Amino acid sequence: MKGFLADLLLCKGSMVRKSFFRFGWLSLAAVFARRDRTGAPVPNLVLRVGIAGCLDLPERAELEPLIDSILSQLQQGLAKCSEAYRDTFRHAPQNLPVECRLLTQLAAGADQFVADRAARLGFQLQCIFPISKSQYAEDLRRNPGADADPVRELERLSQGQPVLELDGEIDADSHKLTDQTYENSALTMLDHSDMLLALVRSDAKSISGGTRWLVEEAELRGIPVVEVFVDRPELSALSTGIFEARIRERLDIGGWATGLVKSLVLLPETITMYQQSGWFVEKFRSRVKAMDSEWPPNWSHTGEAAQTESQVQIWMDTINRDYFEFWRWAEHRANTYRDLYQGAYVTVGLLALTAVVGALLGALDESWSPFGKWIELVSIAALLLLWWDAHSGNWRQRWLGYRWLEQQISDAAVLELVGRTIPVKSSPFLSEFEKEGAWIQWYLRAVLRQAHLPTGKLDQKNMLEAGKLILAGKIDRQLAYYEKAEEANRRTHHRLEAVAMIALALTLITAIAYLCAHYLEESFHVPATPLRLIATAAGIFCPALAATLAAIRAQGEFVQLETRYKGMKRRLSELRKAFQTILEEGSAKPMPLLSWRLARHTKEAAGWMLEEVSQWRSLLQTKEIEHG
Question: DSSP letter string over 392-414?
Fold first, then answer.
């Protein structure tokens, strides 16, 4: 019984106790620490242009000046934005790399034509083939369009360039690539593009995997599209905006490219980065450690040690170079503001309780009144100072904002293992709620733009290896987290509730004791001053304790989190079974489009986990609006 009460009073093993003592320790340690003035890592300034176009392109001579002009204007627009981009960050190097990339499938016709012009102008080509290079070459021989030798151009243009070979499939009857293979390849290219350059005919029809279909898909996603009509170049235009309200702008209007590039790579003037933190937060931050072991693309999660360096390991090296620095920074910031916020709301509640104790001392004995008032004064002053710092510093907003960013970057890194990336869509609804943190969406886009495609084949062997890594490093790790977090929130909620009920029961007992003391003195003239004082003190302290614990329970939202984590755990367990089934079937027999299946389930898991953070961010802002 004694041990149980000690556990209850200290909330032993609970999130409250851990948050309080961690906050106190880090706050004391911060007194002797140096201020952490490091800013966000600066992603390289990159513009990614996707290309799609018709197969038959006999009008190349007439289109060369127009295509060269479009590509050159995009390059110049990016160069003009470089200084403003660097000024967005506090510690950006002056020699920050600026790069234009062309994402291309190097299909016959428009793809190879534009890729050739782009390479001459200094664009880096990043090639995405729907199937292995040798099989793709055979497909080009069967469908050369107006080209004399598209296979020779394929070899020449892809020489020395990053090439991602997807695991498409060939129809057994027609011996041609399936429509789904073309579709997956086109969508993969679009996923990695900031804008789309499409060479189409004015009478082109929408066919799955074709150019007109891809233009429509880009417009649905709100991706800018430069449409060049090969049969009527004078009608070529840029379309931007959300699907329901696309804006078309003629290419003969000066400055269109600079305006487009600015909208893609620069932070909007209406949005600012989080303001610089105060000295306490900067010193506190320097004592918090980033949990590098939480990085999902990590071989330690598989429990296997590869004897030789595999293709997937080489991809992981590239992924680590592209993402890890940014993920680690976001993860560190999220941990910092989590410790600050969770420790602050527990400390504020306990300071309020301490103020009540100070006031109680004076009520019990006048000689204790000055000492009690000092306790009350210091507690309330510290409470108000801490509350103001947490409120003005947006500690909870920053915690959830950085956690959202960390989650998105880790998802992007994991999806790169199967040649995909996360879909980044702007939400007018969420943008209103994000307030100062809206720059995080922009920063995420900058991180994704500078990342490179994995170079190699998404064949069965590599996909099985990548699938095991994703299962262990992403899904299993996240399941373990939710199991632990669900139990921690459940235990914390019930212990706080139990202590609060005990406090209320003691309040009832002390009220009865006070009445007994009163009637003993009145009726029987029995001295009961000590009993009266004890009853008075307990009658003040116990309700204050119950109110404090109720406030901590409400602020911590432990029961809500327990319920949500239980649902997440159930959904991820179902997904884990589906993931294992895919890997088992893929091991037993060749499975076409294995990477597409793995990517679909990985995106599904990432979407659920991201929704968890996004909904809490929106809920937070909704509460603030309602209370305002």
Answer: HTTHHHHHHHHHHHHHHHHHHHH
Give the closest residue to 99 by CA, choosing from 125, 62, 65, 127: 125
pLDDT at 627 over 60: no
Structure tokens at 571: 């959904």
Which CATH number covers residue 106?
Answer: 3.40.50.450
The count of structural domains within the chain is 2
Write out the H or E segment, with its range, that includes residue 247.
strand 247-250
Q: Tell me what the mean pLDDT of segment 295-317 comes to.
A: 69
Determine the 3-state secondary structure of 21 from DSSP. helix
Is the Cβ–Cβ distance between 553 and 481 less than 8 Å? Answer: no
Residues 203 and 326 in one domain: no
**Same domain assignment for residues 242 and 326:** no
Q: d(Cα 158, Cα 121) in Å, to the nearest integer?
A: 16
Q: Which residues pair with 456 in a beta bridge?
A: 164
For the sheet containing 195-200, what is the strand order? Answer: 247-250, 237-240, 225-229, 195-200, 45-53, 98-104, 124-129, 163-165, 456-457
> Considering the domain boundaries, does residue 292 fall inside one?
no
Q: Residue 628 has what pLDDT?
A: 41
H-run or E-run covering 101: strand 98-104
**Residue closest to 60 by CA, chosen among 117, 8, 139, 16:** 117
Q: Where are the beta strands (DSSP E) in 417-545?
A: 456-457
Coil vs helix vs strand at 222: coil
pLDDT in tens, 490-524: 887 777 777 778 777 777 777 777 677 766 666 66
Residue 572: which domain range? 316-627
Q: For residue 170, give the 3-state DSSP assignment.
A: strand
Pairing, β 45-53 against β 456-457: unpaired
For residues 168 and 178, is the Cβ–Cβ distance under 8 A? yes
Tens-digit pLDDT profile for residues 147-205: 678 899 999 999 999 999 999 888 878 878 888 899 999 999 999 999 999 999 888 78
The answer on 452 and 564 residing in a single domain is yes
6-10, 26-30, 168-172, 435-439: least confidently modelled range: 6-10
- Distances in Å between the Cα of 151 and the Cα atoms of 18, 140, 148, 157, 457 are 64, 6, 9, 10, 19
Q: Both 556 and 425 in a single domain?
A: yes
Q: Is residue 2 part of a domain?
A: no
Are the C-beta atoms of residues 341 and 399 closer than 8 Å to each other? Answer: yes
264, 47 Cβ separation under 8 angstroms? yes
In a domain, 438, yes or no: yes
Instruction: Give the contacts of 428 (CB within 8 A, at least 6 positions apart).
Output: none
DSSP-assigned beta bridge partners for residue 238? 226, 249
> pTM (2 decimals)?
0.87
pLDDT at 68 over 90: yes
Strand pairing class (237-240; 247-250): antiparallel
Beta-bridge partner residues of 237: 227, 250
Domain boundary, last residue among 203, 236, 265: 265
